[in-house]
Amino acid sequence: MKQVLLGINLTILGGDLRNVYLIDELEKLGAFIKVLGLPVARRSKVVLCHSLEEALKDTDVVVLPMPGVNHQGKLFAPLCEESYYLTPELKDSIKGEVLFVVGFANSYLKQLAADLGVELVEIAEMDHVAIYNSIPSAEGAIQMAMEMIPITIHGSNAFVIGFGRTGQTLARMLAGIGARVFVAARKPKDLARIYEQCYIPVTFKELEVKIVEADIVFNTVPALVLPANLLQKLKKDAVIIDLASNPGGVDFEAAKSLGIQAVLAPGLPGKVAPKTAGKLLAKVLPELILKHCKVRDWRDLG
User: Fold this and answer.
1) Spatial distance between the Cα atoms of 191 and 194, rounded to a whole number of angstroms
2) What are the residue ranges spanned by the domains of the chain?
3) Where is the Dipicolinate synthase subunit A N-terminal domain (predicted)?
4) What span, in angstroms and rounded, lies between the C-alpha atoms of 164 and 162?
5) In a designed cystine with 93, which of 53, 68, 216, 272 is the match (CB 3.0 to 4.6 A)?
6) pTM value?
7) How confident is the model at residue 95, as a pLDDT?
8) Tell me, what's the pLDDT at 195?
9) Is the domain covering 9-122+274-301 a CATH 3.40.50.720 domain?
10) 3-state secondary structure 239-257
11) Are strands 32-36 and 46-48 parallel, antiparallel or unpaired?
12) Half-sphere exposure of 279 toward its Cβ, with a 13 Å CA cutoff?
């Protein structure tokens, strides 16, 4: 394996198990890596840090967890007992042009990046990243459905709401198992593609009538697409798995009051297939890292 990251200093902050496997892959590419908030072993090119200041010192690129931080700046670090907060006071620890890479950046993180004077790149919505992540997301969602419903996926009426990157992968996998796949979409071109791929196309207006047939509903749309009036039309033993980013697209309070199982399940790649998810991230990050370092070095020469 070519060590394309040789001589580059990376910092990995927190995250789930996918970041543990990501570190292994980035180390193979030659990077020197400082780690905070993850249970990894120290080795020649992997150093464990005890503070954010130590982790950020003399780094070129900071890789944050896919969810980043909360609105108080608390780092997403479920594998660590300590709590770490990213604040503007860390500016003194950052020298030169530094790249921050994150899955999703909330308003706090965007403002923090401006305060720290760092470049911030969100990768979760990049097409190739989202398509890679759709594989473990779809498999994980189907696994959850299998555990929650009293029938087989084969022969079930499975509704997929949204025909984006995850929706397309999910529909294909469900059809492969033998489900009768309904796909709800808004755009005429998506409805045409749904028909072409032998799924059952459903407009959002038709969803109000068709949803009574659903045994399982998978939502991928990050907006309220399953309000109380639609939930009332579902079978009582139907199951909803919401893959959209928090807060999802389901009225969860209404679902609870109606006795319908509804689960918000973002971040499945890091939960159900962390090794695969880490390897997929390692396909994406080197290009971003090298591009940043190349531009930075060019500016330094200027």
Assistant:
1) 5
2) 9-122+274-301, 128-266
3) 10-124
4) 6
5) 53
6) 0.89
7) 87
8) 98
9) yes
10) EEEECCCCCCCECHHHHHH
11) parallel
12) 6
Residue 301 has a pLDDT of 39
- pLDDT at position 277, please? 95
| 301, two tokens | 């020469």
Same CATH fold assignment for domains 9-122+274-301 and 128-266: yes
Q: Can you tell me the distance from the alpha carbon of 68 to that of 65, in angstroms, rounded to the nearest whole number? A: 5
Q: Output the CA–CA distances (angstroms, integers) from residue 246 to 15, 17, 223, 260, 266, in the order listed.
A: 17, 20, 10, 19, 7
Count of helix runs (H) and strand runs (E) in the chain: 11, 12
- Three-class SS of residue 188? helix
CATH 3.40.50.300 fits 128-266, yes or no: no
Do 104 and 129 touch, CB atoms closer than 8 A?
no
**Are the C-beta atoms of residues 11 and 53 closer than 8 Å to each other?**
no
Instruction: Show the tokens assigned to 203.
Output: 């407009």
Sheet of 99-102: strand order equals 46-48, 32-36, 9-13, 61-63, 99-102, 119-122
Closest by alpha carbon to 126, among 275, 274, 14, 288?
288
Residue type, 286: P
Q: What angle do CA 87, 88, 94 make, to 5 degrees?
A: 105
Cis status of the peptide bond prior to 150, with omega within 30 of 0: no
Q: Which two tokens stand for residue 93?
A: 């620890």
Selection from 244, 246, 251 nearest residue 170 by Cα: 244
Chain position carrying tokens 């990894």: 40
Distance CA 36, CA 79 (A): 11
Dist. CA 291–CA 300, nearest whole Å: 14
The reported pLDDT for the residue numbered 245 is 85
